[in-house]
Design goal:
single chain, 269 residues, 4-stranded antiparallel beta sheet, globular, alpha/beta, binds adenosine-5'-triphosphate, 2 domains, Rossmann fold
Amino acid sequence: MSAAHLNPATLATQRPLTVRGLGKSFGGIHAVKDISFDVRPGEIVGLIGPNGAGKTTCFNLITGFYGPDTGEVRFGSDDVTGRKPYQMARMGIVRSFQKTNILKSLTVFENVLTGHYMEARQPLWRTFFPGRAVRETERAVRDSAARIVQVLGLAHRINTPASVLSCGELRLLEVALALAAKPQILMLDEPAAGLNSQEARTFGEILKTLRGDLVQSILIVEHNMGLVMNVSDRIVVMHFGEKLAEGTPTQIQADSRVIDAYLGGGKKA
Ligand code: ATP
């Protein structure tokens, strides 16, 4: 199904993200309890649930911002459980940040360039004696930044300061910064927050073009149901810290347990 988005040669180098039995408590409250799911190569997986369901905690456990009490996270054959966020990023599991990474006085292009810092790092002496290797790296980084800007539909804003971007454009720039770190798995936590329905639709269409091109797979936590249903190949539903359901958008929309969880609010079954 979704692996069809990747050509066979690319697929051979791809790795699934595997979450097994993940658990985390805060002061006796099970924020996440025994959560298991996969993000397979070529997939966009949505992680949804009512407020307080444990989505953000789960996301933070996978990206290394929290250490889990139980369970494991594997990336291909590598056990990456409890690795620090920067270690995860180096391995190819990269999350986006809302606003915090964007420098408002810099242009769109300059912001995306800053996101390439890992790739562009050079020893200090090279700053004073830049040779061919440095110039080639610089060119590669600029080409990469230009391509990311273009794929995200921001080419017409490339030299615009981030301070004057619309909400929708800012959300795309946040994704662009994450893409600059060359993720295999792109992790998005409420990337469409504050977008109107038209902006969310545009955002979703762009997101779908990334998979199999700039990223292998995407895990998205999002409250905007229209967006999640539109972009996801598979959806995992959390409720009271546990996995309530998993399936295609069509299956999830027809699942009475999911409907009850959203309509029933705080009552635990
Ligand atoms: P929302 O959609 O409202 O953002 P969520 O599904 O992302 O919610 P979490 O933020 O993961 O849910 O919270 C799950 C539960 O864990 C909630 O009861 C929350 O109060 C609790 N919780 C989350 N983080 C902490 C923390 N750092 N300390 C104490 N309790 C926490």
